[in-house]
Amino acid sequence: MNINQEQLSIFKAVMESGSFSAAARKLGKVPSAVSMSIANLEIDLDLKLFERVGREPMPTPQAHVLYEKTEQLLIEMNQWKQQALALANGLETSLNIVVVTELLHTDWTEYISLLAEHFPTLQINIFSAPQEDALKMLINQTAQLALMFEREILESREQFVEVKREALVPVAAQHFPLAQKVVVTFEDILQSRQIVVASRDKSIKPELLYSKNYWRTDNHHLACSMILQGLGWGVLPVQIFEENSQYKKNLKILNLADFTPKFEYYVDLVWSRESHLGQAARFLINHIRNQRIHTK
């Protein structure tokens, strides 16, 4: 059986227009070409599709059954061709992006929507991980791009473009001892248990760790839950207070005496110099670079 896209398109046109001649006009072909294509399709299928009696061909019950499947099959064939063309032009087979857990509350999905709009056939996989693990995923190439906080010391294999700035603040549940203080000293936070988002690899020290006594989790939502429960204080993005009324009501931003209780960080889109980036990854990098140029 050797059925091609043109045969299916002609079959669909005949079914919808009601005659070989009308289908030929619609497709810009001569009627004999349409008639021959249908005849060849019937031979390939070993199936009669039209009763040729009277002025116009009459679809058989089998033709009606196949017609129901034809449009979806043509759509899938077109998608297959578009995917093959995109791959030939350098589109990656899939794009893995890791988002640092503290950034899950930011507007990172706008970039995914942009990729979906320009590369509709691309498979995109989104992961969430603590900062240290996100960097490891880039280095071992299990992710091609990472949305993460700026780092004081860059890995030699890293390359990045700044995306935006985000603020984090030290918080505690309203009933937590630190929250009862009008002013919190650095010694206070050193002695109070901190809930910190960190790598599962305990040999890696978290960047935002201040307390001598701390619990760690690799999940930002778990950290929020533990802080709300009064199990410790932690550092959370300011934006979550705007999005979650429960956090706004039950958490207090600590008034630190010894330094400004607001950590301003640039958020970077990061990739490895050793990775061979595909068309979609390069598109997103260039899009963010152009955004920065036009907002300066």
TrEMBL record:
Keywords: DNA-binding, Transcription, Transcription regulation. The keyword Hydrolase does not apply. InterPro entries: LysR_HTH_N, LysR_subst-bd, WH-like_DNA-bd_sf, WH_DNA-bd_sf. Residues 1-60 form the HTH lysR-type domain. The keyword Cytoplasm does not apply. GO terms for molecular function: DNA-binding transcription factor activity; transcription cis-regulatory region binding. Belongs to the LysR transcriptional regulatory family. This is LysR family transcriptional regulator. It comes from Acinetobacter defluvii.
